[in-house]
């Protein structure tokens, strides 16, 4: 499986702004489980997630904190009334409009 980046943003903010952003994310998770990003993007977080907190000293003067959570989306199940793709021999034959369909 290939990783696909959906959204990434990097910026420098104050500690207070960081706390506000984390509270906003927490509120979104608590309310309906959707995290909003970018201009109009959203992703729905599963009810159960795997989470990881990593605190690392990058150098003498730099420390990083990474919060990561992931989940598996349910496999899409084919609905009984979904149409099958047309077979080659059927797709090659023209179809006629019936009077019922034209009205």
UniProtKB/TrEMBL annotation:
Name of one Pfam family that matches: Amphi-Trp
Domain of life of the source: Bacteria
Protein name: Amphi-Trp domain-containing protein
Domain (Amphi-Trp) ranges: 6-75
InterPro entries cross-referenced by the UniProt entry: Amphi-Trp_dom
Residue ranges, compositional bias (Low complexity): 92-103
Species lineage: Bacteria, Bacillati, Actinomycetota, Actinomycetes, Micromonosporales
Chain residue ranges for the region called Disordered: 76-103
Organism of this sequence: Micromonospora arida
């Amino acid at each position: 499986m290939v990783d696909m980046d959906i959204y990434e943003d990097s910026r420098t903010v104050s500690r207070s702004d960081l706390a506000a952003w984390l509270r906003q994310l927490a509120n979104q998770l608590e309310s309906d489980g959707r995290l909003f990003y970018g201009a109009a993007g959203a992703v729905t977080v599963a009810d159960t997630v795997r989470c990881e907190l990593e605190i690392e000293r990058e150098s003498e003067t730099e420390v990083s904190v990474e919060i990561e959570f992931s989940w598996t989306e349910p496999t899409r199940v084919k609905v009984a009334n979904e149409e099958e793709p047309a077979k080659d021999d059927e797709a090659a034959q023209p179809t006629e409009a019936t009077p019922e369909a034209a009205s």
